């Protein structure tokens, strides 16, 4: 690196000329990517008056707000071609999986790389369902939320809470001895095992893998239980123990809906539809929440904390919260005749068209076609949702409008909210129905990262510091007030204080202006 001529540069390299110095650098290309760290060698002297915080002499930095073109993992899990509308899990097209597979079989595929045999699938399903039961203390935990708590707040907290039960799963607890009998998959009678804290998940040894895979089963198994508990708190219902003899989604429906009836069996069409939607949501490569799980997991925190972080990320309206936002948007539009005015407001950037657009897909999201087919099957059982006409009018108008077509904005998966609504789920439960299956994808990426060649590197991005240069501390009596929007804390309205208290007189009532 750092020559002044580019002659004889080998193939599969990138030649970069730094016009500040005239130096030429050769950067290797592998898998059609270059290493950002290669640019650390591209150094230049400071220009007259240049800020030292630019660190120009320490090498060039790569700026990429929003990770628009930064690859942070080598992954074998999911492939998306956003231009062609292709989504594959471990090489299998999503359309084939939606038709022939089921959520737990697909979970096995995403986690371990191949479709399970019949015996492998049976064992995996048994283990997942076996791990559906949670400690009875969890009931108190769920009861401690306000009656109207958003179920995503409950689910996010519940994943972190769950981690408090499994000391052997926590890399922060160094050098713990645990009984081999705790590790269900190990040979009975083997000696106690020393879990070496920080390397608990990164060793790849049979013991380490057994601990990792047990947490995976627990997390997938309990995801539906925790979600159902969040649902039942909101409905004012007692909790139920996960049933036996039902599928993953059948058990989930039972846990939400069973009210003591004899021989209660969920509707098979709804059970299968939910399973297909779970499969469609199981993974979507490095989206915001999966990246959050990896970012959090890169500090080697326990998987429960990492999954809780992913859940929090998914809750946002640009991501998993979009399915809830779609329905709120359709309700606000009301009738099909209001669609043109709504789209005009979107174009004026006064409103957001939820359920349209995607960072990766620049054509229709392939999952949206499966969602439509699934919707038809569900509507046969539940009846059509009254918002469907509005949704279709919105879709048709947007797909004909140059504003949306020129930006390659097409429907994404989040119109599945119409199916959830037809199935009778409350609006704020929709992101939960996204988060529960996505636990699988989060864990597949987390497992892959823990076992990647070369170990785990903590994710610590760089910044471009544009703030003040060094300045000296000013004693309080010599300061000049800095004022203006964003430069001082905003005035606070104390909503918890009643009008009567505001009118009352008491010591310390006059609050200093911030
Ligand atoms: N409605 C109107 N305009 C849009 C929309 C939309 N839904 N999405 C993008 N645009 C415009 C955007 O304003 C920009 O226009 P311009 O270049 O004139 O400023 C252009 O399209 C490019 O968009 P972008 O914001 O650069 O795209 P992004 O990749 O940063 O954002 C997105 C992707 C999904 C956050 C965005 O499309 C969006 O906000 N969609 C609505 C929310 C939604 O449905 N999210 C769920 C995504 S799918 C499920 C999941 O994976 O979570």
Automatic annotation (TrEMBL):
Keywords: Transferase, Tricarboxylic acid cycle. GO terms for biological process: monocarboxylic acid metabolic process; tricarboxylic acid cycle. Pathway: Carbohydrate metabolism. PROSITE patterns: CITRATE_SYNTHASE (PS00480). InterPro entries: Citrate_synth-like_lrg_a-sub, Citrate_synth-like_sm_a-sub, Citrate_synthase, Citrate_synthase_AS, Citrate_synthase_bac-typ, Citrate_synthase_sf. The keyword Transit peptide does not apply. The active site is at 358, 414. GO terms for molecular function: acyltransferase activity, acyl groups converted into alkyl on transfer. The keyword Zinc does not apply. It holds the Pfam family Citrate_synt. Belongs to the citrate synthase family. This is Citrate synthase. It comes from Ephemerocybe angulata.
């Amino acid at each position: 690196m750092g020559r002044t001529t580019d002659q004889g540069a080998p193939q599969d390299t990138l030649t970069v000329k730094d016009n500040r110095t005239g130096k030429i650098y050769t950067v290797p290309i592998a898998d059609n990517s270059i290493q950002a760290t290669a640019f650390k060698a591209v150094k230049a002297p400071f220009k007259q008056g240049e800020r030292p915080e630019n660190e120009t002499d320490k090498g060039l930095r790569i700026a990429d707000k929003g990770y628009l073109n930064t690859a942070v993992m080598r992954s074998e899990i999911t492939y998306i071609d956003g231009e062609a509308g292709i989504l594959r899990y471990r090489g299998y097209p999503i359309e084939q999986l939606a038709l022939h597979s089921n959520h737990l079989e697909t979970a096995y595929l995403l986690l371990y790389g191949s479709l399970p045999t019949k015996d492998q699938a049976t064992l995996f399903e048994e283990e997942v369902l076996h791990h559906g039961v949670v400690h009875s203390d969890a009931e108190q935990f769920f009861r401690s939320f306000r009656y109207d708590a958003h179920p995503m707040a409950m689910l996010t907290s519940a994943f972190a809470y769950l981690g408090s039960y499994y000391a052997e799963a926590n890399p922060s607890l160094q050098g713990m001895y645990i009984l081999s009998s705790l590790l269900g998959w190990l040979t009975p009678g083997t000696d106690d095992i020393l879990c070496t804290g920080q390397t608990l998940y990164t060793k790849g040894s049979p013991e380490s893998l057994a601990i990792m895979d047990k947490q995976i089963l627990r997390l997938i198994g309990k995801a539906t239980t925790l979600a159902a508990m969040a649902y039942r708190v909101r409905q004012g219902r007692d909790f139920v123990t996960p049933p036996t003899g039902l599928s993953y989604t059948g058990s989930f429906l039972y846990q939400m809906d069973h009210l003591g009836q004899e021989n209660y069996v969920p509707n098979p069409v709804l059970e299968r539809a939910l399973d297909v939607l779970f499969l469609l949501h199981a993974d979507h490569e490095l989206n915001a929440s999966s990246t959050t799980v990896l970012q959090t997991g890169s500090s080697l925190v326990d998987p429960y904390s990492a999954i809780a972080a992913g859940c929090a990320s998914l809750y946002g309206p640009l991501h998993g919260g979009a399915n809830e936002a779609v329905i709120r948007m359709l309700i606000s539009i009301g009738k099909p005749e209001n669609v043109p005015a709504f789209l005009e407001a979107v174009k004026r950037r006064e409103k957001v068209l939820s359920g349209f657009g995607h960072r990766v897909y620049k054509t229709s999201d392939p999952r949206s076609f499966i969602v439509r087919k699934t919707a038809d099957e569900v509507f046969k059982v539940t009846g059509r949702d009254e918002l469907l006409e509005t949704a279709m009018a919105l879709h048709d108008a947007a797909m004909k409008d140059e504003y949306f077509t020129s930006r390659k904005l097409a429907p994404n998966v989040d119109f599945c909210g119409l199916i959830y609504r037809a199935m009778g789920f409350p609006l704020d439960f929709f992101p939960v129905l996204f988060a529960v299956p996505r636990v699988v994808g989060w864990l597949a990426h987390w497992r892959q990262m823990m076992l990647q060649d070369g170990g785990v590197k903590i994710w610590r991005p760089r910044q471009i510091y544009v703030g003040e240069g060094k300045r000296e501390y000013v004693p309080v009596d010599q300061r000049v007030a800095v004022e203006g929007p964003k430069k001082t804390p905003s005035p606070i309205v104390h909503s918890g204080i009643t009008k009567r208290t505001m009118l009352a007189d008491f010591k310390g009532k006059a609050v200093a202006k911030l």
